[in-house]
Design a protein that fits this description.
Blueprint (H helix, E strand, L loop, with lengths): L1 E7 L6 H9 L7 E6 L6 H6 L6 E5 L7 H11 L4 E4 L5 E2 L3 H12 L5 E3 L2 E5 L2 E4 L11 E2 L1 H11 L9 E4 H6 L11 H12 L2 E3 L5 E4 L16 H10 L6 H19 L7 H5 L7 H12 L2 H21 L1
Helix pairs in contact: 5-9, 7-8, 8-9, 11-12
């Protein structure tokens, strides 16, 4: 019923625990596809030392092709109709796939993807992170509801290691975009959410390890966020809720500005895509981040960080 796709590049300290969290599932997958992207730290040898007939190792065509190519190769080579993604430094609780399988038993012909809340792991401490607060009794998500949840929660409601997709629907929407190595997952989720119906599993059974050095999700960049660049092309000019699109762009721009943490200046490209009427005070903050001395920027950032979160929630 379910194939697991794990992209691998130099995760020797994490990949064994990751795979064993899959092998210990109460509901086992059909297969575990480990797509090695040219690991040279012993990660691949670590995987080969795990004795299980479920594991299939697939090499990318060239080293460091990137997570999009690795995941797409896994999807293309999978033998199941449903794909569960898991990064090599993350984990699942033992009942994760069982919960997914129960959902698919009654809904596989109605939905294109399943997304779940997740837990954060830091220094062996695990705590609850993202949960959709207004899911209520209706677990089904159309595109409008998906976007509104993203806006309200101030972050994408889907995270790769807590997402399961219907293989053919995912392929039809283009899979992970290979042109990006940052936020490529968010682009993929936008595509599949636009064309299909999602199902929210309320059980937080996926664990995001935030202590891993060099994670791309932690890398700050002054380049315009891919979601801001791509979303208008994804939804098209005829999408009736353009206000949602503009607010989502504002959210992602402000997240990028905050992530810079004064290491880089806010660029004109960022500011020019910001819809000022929706968040005027946030725009003023960006201007300060562009033109004020670094020490002043830092003070403004420390003062405004929590306030901007409140402003965005009210917008």
């Amino acid at each position: 019923m379910i194939s697991v796709v794990i992209p691998l590049y130099n995760k020797i300290d994490y990949v064994e625990e990751c795979i064993k969290s899959v092998l210990s599932q109460e509901f086992l997958p059909v297969e575990i596809l480990v797509v090695d992207d040219g690991s040279d730290d012993g990660s691949l040898q670590k995987v080969k030392s795990i004795h299980s007939d479920l594991i299939r190792i697939i090499p990318t065509d060239s080293p460091q092709s990137g997570p999009s190519i690795a995941r797409n190769m896994g999807v293309q080579n999978a033998n199941s109709d449903w794909i569960a993604f898991l990064d090599a430094d993350d984990l699942w609780e033992k009942s994760y796939l069982k919960a997914i399988a129960q959902i698919l038993t009654d809904n596989s012909d109605k939905i294109s993807y399943i997304f779940s809340p997740w837990l954060l792991k830091s220094s062996n401490d695990i705590k609850k992170s993202f949960v959709v607060k207004d899911a209520g009794a209706d677990p089904f998500f159309d595109f409008e509801r998906f976007l509104q949840t993203w806006i309200d929660e101030k972050q994408c409601p889907m995270w790769t290691s807590a997402t399961v997709v219907k293989k053919q629907d995912f392929i039809n929407c283009g899979g992970f975009p290979v042109k990006y190595r940052r936020a490529e997952d968010k682009i993929a989720w936008l595509r599949i959410a636009k064309d299909g119906i999602g199902y929210y599993n309320p059980l937080p059974l996926a664990i995001y390890n935030i202590d891993v050095p060099g994670q791309l999700t932690k890398a700050a960049s002054p380049v315009l966020h891919p979601v801001v660049s791509e979303i208008s092309g994804i939804v098209g000019d005829n999408y009736p809720h353009q206000t949602q699109i503009r607010k989502l762009k504002n959210n992602e721009i402000m997240r990028s500005v905050k992530d810079l943490k004064m290491q880089h200046k806010c660029t004109y490209d960022m500011r020019s895509k910001f819809y000022i009427p929706y968040n005027p005070l946030s725009f003023i903050f960006m201007i300060f981040c562009t033109y004020c001395p670094t020490i002043v920027q830092q003070n403004i950032y420390n003062f405004a960080n929590s306030g901007l979160r409140f402003i965005g929630r009210k917008a």
